[in-house]
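sry for the spam today, last one i promise. struct tokens for design, 598 residues
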């Protein structure tokens, strides 16, 4: 296809504003699917995605469209993941396109996540076509939303397309806008091959499938290619595109988006953002913007039943086949036995993996407190240490300082919930940077330590605002903090899984809350159980779980005082033995529940 007949675009939207519905509608209108095939949403194909209404893995579809000018166009629709945890994948997908449809719900207006994505799109010099969706709703206010787009985002919304993806209104207008407003790609087809690895996934029949955007040259079946960042070579055995069904092609030329397979066994061998070139006639320079994604949130996953350890390992291997962005290594804990320390791109990513392990692999798991990565400057110039697990924290004497990751968060919230929201951010050590009002809603920018966000910030935000607040963030680097390791001791034994790194100013409140919750969560035993929170040996909070009293003297009828005393002594001894050697039974729910802050 000649360059001027190609259009590559993505769809940007806040969750639930109608991205997937619009995509399906475009596929249907251009003939990619029959009505029956349309019945299920095509682009979101995992159960969890469907339930949560988010797109986890990007999918791409090629559409053929005969425009009003009578010419045939090849449109590539790139679906981008819809969550901040996958920001890098989003940035690569956007880099593969020349324009974007900005879908905004006509009743909801612009939300935090719309913004984050639209700014990235602007950074990639995209032509942005606003689409005001759901105009069929009685609550739709397209004019108000147009004004919001102009005021908040700062792009013209005069020519916004008014649409209802659900009822099929405005779909032709969207297609025409793609052809007339989004520029065609550029690229020299005679130059050596230069293509971007946009995404990859594991297919049980095809092996690893790689989504590519060819920037220069031509990618052919049978060609020997080289991944510039990873340095490996492969033979291309399939070239094609998705409509959304797979269609094999002989080549993909500059400007085109499609997929290849090259007998690759694991997605970990393919790095998103890498440059693919011809092994024999390589391009001089790799594409800009490549980076290796690093997990930012870590936690331990332990099987409730120790016998499930192997099963957990196999399941983690299987999940990793399709997701190279999470990591795991074996770990053992005195309290929880054998399990794995896992790293994730963010909290949602953690939840997705945890949920898949439970649901698809039928595993009962204990999850330990999520932790961010701290940078510890060791004393006496002994260098720097990345700390992923609070249990590995060196002794205070060996630490010069601790740095923690910070984020900048953008929050949108209706006026009435503003007060409680500001309090929440303040309680989490937030630094307010900005507060403005746009159409009855406050837009707040806060700098927050990531550590204060990974626990239950998002849940709290949603419950404070009855679900109306929206939240988005990006990392802004490391800052020194007065951080300490808080250990939790149950019956004088430290419980690794519950130890966490906290700011000194919040340690006592956190410690007290934790002890209070544990007191209710751990059932009574035959002996008294102290529950303590401590910082470096100093107890900062304490609760006691009273003993279940078994009255051993009940059977002695009065009289014989010495016999009674003997029995009591024996019981005391028994208690002592239990305290010394006995182990406390902590129920599984206690671990997760204890980590939720009140
Ligand atoms: P996404 O999260 O942006 O992909 O949103 P979806 O396409 O999954 O849509 C979210 C919800 O909005 C679904 O229940 C859709 O049926 C509904 N929806 C999408 N478009 C429209 C529309 O034009 N009008 C109405 N009334 N509902 C819509
Ligand atoms: Mg969707």
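last one done:
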């Amino acid at each position: 296809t000649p360059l001027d007949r190609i259009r590559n675009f993505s769809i940007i939207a806040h969750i639930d504003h109608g991205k997937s519905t619009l995509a399906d509608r475009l596929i249907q209108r251009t003939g990619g699917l029959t009505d029956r095939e349309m019945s299920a949403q095509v682009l979101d194909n995992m159960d969890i995605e469907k339930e949560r209404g988010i797109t986890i893995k990007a999918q791409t579809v090629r559409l053929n469209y005969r425009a009003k000018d009578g010419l045939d166009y090849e449109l590539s629709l790139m679906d981008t993941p819809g969550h901040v945890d996958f920001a890098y994948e989003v940035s690569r997908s956007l880099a593969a396109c020349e324009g974007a449809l900005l879908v905004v719900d006509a009743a909801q207006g612009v939300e935090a996540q719309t913004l984050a994505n639209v700014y990235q799109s602007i950074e990639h010099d995209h032509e942005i076509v606003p689409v005001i969706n759901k105009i069929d709703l009685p609550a739709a206010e397209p004019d108000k939303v147009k004004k919001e787009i102009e005021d908040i985002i700062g792009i013209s919304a005069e020519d916004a397309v008014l649409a209802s993806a659900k009822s099929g209104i405005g779909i032709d207008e969207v297609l025409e806008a793609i052809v007339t407003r989004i520029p065609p790609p550029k690229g020299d087809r005679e130059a050596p091959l230069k293509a971007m690895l946009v995404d990859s996934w594991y297919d049980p029949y095809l092996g690893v499938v790689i989504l590519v955007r060819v920037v220069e040259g031509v990618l052919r079946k049978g060609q020997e290619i080289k991944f510039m960042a990873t340095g490996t070579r492969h033979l291309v055995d399939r070239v094609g595109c998705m409509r959304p069904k797979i269609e094999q092609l002989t080549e993909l030329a500059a400007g085109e988006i499609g997929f290849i397979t090259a007998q690759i066994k694991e997605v970990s061998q393919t790095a998103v953002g890498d440059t693919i070139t011809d092994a024999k006639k390589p391009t001089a320079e790799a594409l800009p913007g490549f980076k290796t994604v690093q997990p930012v949130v870590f936690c331990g996953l332990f099987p409730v039943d120790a016998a499930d350890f192997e099963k957990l390992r196999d399941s983690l291997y299987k999940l990793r086949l399709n997701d190279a962005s999470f990591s795991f290594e074996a770990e053992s804990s005195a309290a929880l036995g054998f399990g794995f320390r896992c790293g994730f791109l963010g909290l949602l990513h953690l939840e997705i993996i945890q949920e898949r392990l439970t649901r698809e692999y039928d595993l009962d798991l204990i999850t330990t407190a999520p932790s961010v990565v701290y940078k510890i400057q060791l004393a006496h110039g002994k260098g720097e240490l990345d700390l992923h697990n609070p249990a590995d924290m060196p002794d205070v004497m060996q630490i010069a300082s601790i740095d923690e990751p910070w984020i900048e968060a953008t929050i949108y919230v209706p006026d009435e919930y503003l007060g409680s929201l500001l309090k929440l951010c303040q309680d989490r050590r937030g630094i307010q940077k900005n507060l403005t009002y746009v159409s009855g809603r406050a837009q707040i920018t806060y700098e927050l330590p990531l550590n204060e966000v990974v626990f239950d910030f998002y849940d709290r935000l949603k419950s404070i605002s009855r679900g109306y607040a929206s939240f988005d963030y990006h990392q802004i680097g490391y800052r020194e903090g007065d951080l300490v390791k808080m250990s939790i001791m149950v019956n004088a034994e430290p419980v690794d899984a519950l130890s966490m790194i906290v700011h000194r100013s919040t340690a006592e409140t956190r410690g007290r809350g934790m002890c209070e919750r544990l007191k209710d969560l751990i059932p009574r035993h035959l002996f008294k159980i102290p529950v303590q929170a401590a910082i470096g040996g100093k107890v900062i909070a304490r609760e006691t779980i009273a003993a279940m009293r078994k009255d051993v003297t009940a059977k002695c009828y009065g009289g014989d005082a010495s016999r009674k005393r003997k029995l009591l002594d024996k019981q005391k001894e028994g208690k002592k033995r239990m305290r010394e050697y006995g182990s406390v039974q902590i129920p599984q729910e206690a671990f997760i529940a204890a980590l939720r802050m009140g």
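The pocket of magnesium ion (ligand 2) is lined by residues 19-20, 44, 53, 55 (CB under 6 Å). ok im logging off now
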